[in-house]
Amino acid sequence: MRILMLAQFYPPTIGGEERHVADLSAELAARGHQVSVATLWHKGFPCFEVDKGVRIHRMRGTMQRMDAIFSYKDRQFAPPFTDPEALWALRRIISQERPDIIHAHNWIVHSFTPLKAWSRAKLVMTLHDYSLVCVQKRLMHYGVRCSGPGFMKCLSCATDFYGIGKGVPSTLANFIWGEIGRRTVDMFLPVSRSVAEQTQLAKRRVPYRIIPNFIPDNAEPPGDNANSLLAQLPKNDFLLFVGDVVPDKGADTLLEAHAQLNNQIPLVLIGQPAAGFVERFPPNVWHMGRWPHDAIMGAWSRCTIALIPSICPDACPTVAMEAMSMGRPIIASRIGGLTDIILDDKTGLLVPPGDPQALREAIQCLLDDPERRECMKMTARQRVVEFQAKSVVPRIEQVYHEVLTSCS
């Protein structure tokens, strides 16, 4: 089968979505498929290369020339509408690769939908977030969880978040092109029940299968650089948070809960902090900044409890799967895709989002009960098999076969 992935970013640019696309592409290539990737070009990257059997095409887009609109920290994002240059680049790549399946990830799909009939390929789209209905992609409305989309509501929210220059056209485009996408995509793959429900796939009667993100079957061993970073961790028990240290991820809630614990167990934070957070870290909070992935996996294996206190509905956070693969009990918010991954009172504890008292009590409860933590460790290792490549990738392959054999 010939498969073309569409992704706005691809390694060495890395994040959760990029890691998923790269891992999926490599797994499919290893299973005998002809896999190629079309992604946006960024400075310093080759226009074409082959990595792990995957043919990677990097293309330029018109919006990339308008840096101030769809860019952030040297990353140019795909817009929520067709990019003219990206469309013509995709036409050339499709002529060359002749894919049976186009598997899109995020808004770059809009640069392909006008080409779908011409390409004769089936279109599958993974929904890694809430961008089908939310131009912010996070489903947050003025700092709290959004109750659902509405045009004027979204327009006001996006304008406040992005400014008029980006907020207004992005909202208009997302409403228009989101509807085009619903009519064009042959199968949506939301990564959690939360994404499926909040993007209203059943209500809109569009075809979908809930298929989560996944992690590799085997954890990568830490390299020399990772070992030097791991030497900086506390020698004894510690709590671990991995992710951007920002309010949406529950950083305020976590710091407040940690300050109220009976004992002074260290809290380790690995990730980029929001402005002003560093000054608020007390002595027993260890901020490590950004670490490479293998070092993060090493940190998971050493921590006592993993913490994921998000207040935004994370779609399908792989950090939870990674912590489980290392046999760590998790305390997380009962929100978003976390409820699909963590079994309450079996692989960890789920608490109300934004509730520092509930979070503190859950942490103290597990700290005081090592036997319970050991039971959770064993169950976590058993549970995480459902989120490994050997379990998830065949489900995606089955979707490919389904859409190829279905009536046009």
Rg computed from alpha carbons, rounded to a whole number of angstroms: 21 Å
DSSP E strands, number: 17
The CATH class designation of the largest domain is: Alpha Beta
Derived from helix and strand composition plus strand pairing, the structural class reads: alpha/beta
- Mean pLDDT, all residues: 92
CATH architecture of the largest domain: 3-Layer(aba) Sandwich
Q: Could you please say which CATH topology of the largest domain applies here?
A: Rossmann fold
What's the number of helices? 14
Q: Low-confidence parts, pLDDT < 50 over ≥5 residues?
A: none
Whole-number count of domains: 2
Fraction of residues in β-strands: 15-25%
**Euclidean distance between termini CA atoms:** 18 Å
Q: What is the share of helical residues?
A: 25-40%
What about the largest sheet?
7 strands, mixed
Strand order of the largest sheet: 3-4-2-1-7-8-11
What best-fitting shape do the alpha-carbon axes yield? globular
| CATH H-level superfamily of the largest domain | Glycogen Phosphorylase B
Description of the molecule:
Strand 3 and strand 4 (54-59) form a beta hairpin. The protein is built from 14 helices and 17 strands. Helix content is 38%, strand content 17%. It has a 7-stranded mixed beta sheet, with helices on both faces. It is of the alpha/beta class and 408 residues long. The protein has 2 domains: 2-214 and 389-405, Glycogen Phosphorylase B (Rossmann fold); 224-387, 3-Layer(aba) Sandwich (Rossmann fold).
